[in-house]
Amino acid sequence: MKILFLGSSNFSKIVLEKLIENNINISAIITQPDRPSGRGHKLTPTEVKKLAIEKSIDVFTFDKIKLHLDEIKNIDYDVAVVASFGQILPQEFLDYHLTINVHPSLLPKYRGATPIQSALLNGDKVTGVTIMKVAKEVDAGDIILQKEFKINEEYYRELEEKLAILGGEMLIDVFKQIENKSIKFIPQDNDKAIIVSKINKEQGKLDFSKSADEIVNKVRALSEEVGCFIVLDDRMIKIGRVQNVTNFYPNIIQNKILENKKHFIIGCKNGAIEILTCQSPSGKMVLAKDYLNGHSEILGKNVL
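The structure assignment produced for this chain is given below.
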């Protein structure tokens, strides 16, 4: 069986690595074009393109699939696999061959752009991966295979990696179903669909009128990609890792930084959190106790 792989993100790369490890025949790869990145805005290929070049697999960078349908027709493949590609696929493409998608949630829950972040933000204890047939409506296609995954204390990147590995393993099972002609398609219950959209940088600001658990969930979901931060006086402090310390500091005032040189503690709704790592605008991510050593003037102040 020959596979056309479409993906652009780190999640995509991990799924693709799993397929390559299992000697799946990848005919070609389609990914997003190189984009400006870093301080120098240097054109940078996607992680998927880098892997394709490393493995000597034909790779195409199409900004809009619909403008390259004639080229795609000339690719020899049996099934198209989509994993976090970043484009809506036209119906004409879907009509060529079976197209399946690796989606990191238990559909119909969390259709859309941010399923992993949404699971963490909402404090879900269980998430999963769905392999589905791609339909014109986003993430609404028939389910082929679905597996649950228990969430522990993972932050976004760790959970993304685990779900991508699971998704790659599930694809192997689906390919066997296709070859054995035992594949089944189960329609989704659209009434239970939860749609999630992209998350912007402003949503990374921590709100200490929320509970400690809600704040920890936000940092786990957003700190590594979108970024989390607090505002103190006129400075913005990036937040890397946090923990709920309500049991140790039950009576701290909401929004107030505790006067403790060894622990960066901030009061929140009915509790407290401890900042474990943080970063000043011109610095690097450091342990919070090291940050406090150089910025003891913030102790006792209120976070905006």
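Interim note for the steering committee: The first strand starts at residue 2 and ends at 7. Residues 156-180 form the longest helix (25 residues).
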